[in-house]
Amino acid sequence: RYFSRPPHRLSLAECAMLAVLPNAPSAIHPAKNRDVLKSKRDQLLQNLYTAKLMHENTLSLAMEEPLPAAPQPLPALAPVLTAQLSLSYPGQRLRTTIDADLQESVRNLMTRHLPVLEANKIHNLSALVLESGTGKVRVYVGNCCRRDHPEFSPDVDLVQALRSTGSILKPFLYAAMLDDGKLLPGMLVADIPSNFGGFTPKNYTENYSGMVPAWQALAQSLNVPAVRMLAEYDLARFYDLLQRSGITSLNFPPSHYGLSLILGGAEASLWEITSVYGAMASALLHQKTMLTTASLFVVQDVERKQKNLPFSQGAIFCTFEAMKKVHRPETEAGWENYGSSQEIAWKTGTSFGFRDGWAVGVTPDCVAGVWVGNADGEGRPGLTGASCAAPVLFDLFQFFPANKKFQMPESEMIRIPVCRQSGYPVSRFCPDTLWEWIPSGGADTKPCPFHQLIHLDQERHYRVNTGCYPADKIVTVPFFVLPPVQAWYYNKINAGYALLPPFHPRCLGSEEENPLNFIYPSSNRTVYLPKKLNSGRSQLVMEAAHRDPEAILYWYLDDAFLGTTRYFHTQSCSPAPGSHRITITDGSGNDKSILINVTDKP
To answer: In angstroms, rounded to a whole number, what is the distance separating the alpha carbons of residues 581 and 496?
Structure first.
């Protein structure tokens, strides 16, 4: 309080001053009657010299020391946590798990980041750091902001506050599907325009890849694959899994959140989110089922509830491996080239409206969570987990060693051959395979559905069959065949993707899977086309895909011809309100029709 040093580092003069201070603390202290206080201190030093407890030189130097200035403010390393504990444990003396030195270092680090955030009118950030394997909270910064500005809500505990989760829940779905055998790390998942009862998720870049490996979809935080995966896994099952994991803030039924649950449609606290990641880290470190959020604690000697974590160690390991591939902030560019760098499994999240930025990182030593935003919920352009929370997170990890790695839980994993192109377990038609470790839950995953045997002519230019081509000249080869819409987008960014050859002119009547499909709209959908101010009607812009990039498509609205498209198959029209049939055909006689309902009322 007076010298800003621990007792063992005080000088003789400082100890003497503290010794005489209790005699009259209200009348004599460094801010009042300083001459009297110095006289009493010097008298005590003289008495010690008279008693031969110090040398004359020591006495002379001690008496020359000035008195301290007014008392320093009491330490306030964790004011928000202190206030919370005083309410939860009134009148009790508590021992916490907080590391004071680490707490102060992290607070100072966050304070240095604050001016950069404030330049964009972002005024609050919070952080939570756990000890991996024990659940002990080592750092608890409930609210870093300008504490002399009450409009920034400096006393609100933002570690416990419920905020929109953004994409921070995606790794939990990934792990659950690995355990369920519905997913393997390298398995291709669809990334195409999708509609779920009027809900049309979009990726942050608003681009599509057609198909993308599951680990990459997680590492790039792609929204469309995540929503499609949740629809396949089942919304109610995932909702139940989150609750069993320790996300207790889901106060409404699953239908209230819908598929947007995986994109930030629900709220959770930094405490809950970080604790689930902490439990996953504990499971890997101890190679057994550990505890969920209930294992997290900040007060020593308090009984804790126990729950089983609903993820296997194999699924957790593969999830962390995918999270290690997330692209780091610019300040971390080239980190893999330095031996001193840490492998950090991490994930960001950004809520709708740019109101919340999340970043969580996991290593064998610690689990750290950072939230950035405004306590009043005001959104700001550019407030994202990657740009605002991630730089704080990676600076925070400088306080922890970088010499440990999670060990693969081989007892919870199996090694199988998978298709190099699709990431599925090999089928008898897959020409190129590799061996990979996967969670045990993937043992019964269905084999690759995309490799098929096709029959070609001798020159391998056309597809044929025995009904239109000599059987002894047919060449049979395995071929990688994606559905039309997936193939349309996949081919745009994968130059090595070989398109399915067309049928030989003599075989055009042969049966095959329809090579064309609608991208938008989907069948049996209601389309809203508002009236324009000039009494005209808004246009419906339709899009389709064909396996043959050279194909010409012919478009029809009911029985009326609309036009043709080539290369880029988009067509617009202005249908009147009511039911309509849209048809597309190609030059080979293939066709596809859908029914839609048009309305001018929302």
So the answer is: 36
Q: Domain end: 26, 42, 64, which one?
A: 64
Which residues sit opposite 394 in a β-bridge? none
Pairing of strands 433-439, 413-419: antiparallel
What pTM was estimated for this model as a whole? 0.81
Q: Which of 32-36, 101-105, 555-559 has the lowest mean pLDDT?
A: 32-36
d(CA 527, CA 539): 11
Does residue 552 lie in a domain region? yes
Pairing mode, strands 578-586 and 591-599: antiparallel
Residue 449's domain spans which residues? 411-507
Neighbours of 588 (CB within 10 A): 16
Q: Which of 543, 546, 557, 542 is nearest to 586 (CA)?
A: 546
Listed residue (167, 163, 143) closest to 154, CA to CA:
143
Q: Does the structure show a pLDDT above 80 at 248?
A: yes
Q: Which residues pair with 32 in a beta bridge?
A: 29
- Are 424 and 500 in a shared domain? yes
Residue 166 pLDDT > 90 = yes
Q: What is the pLDDT of residues 453-479, one digit of tens each?
A: 989 999 998 888 888 888 889 899 999
| Preceding peptide of 521 cis, ω within 30° | yes
pLDDT of res. 295: 53
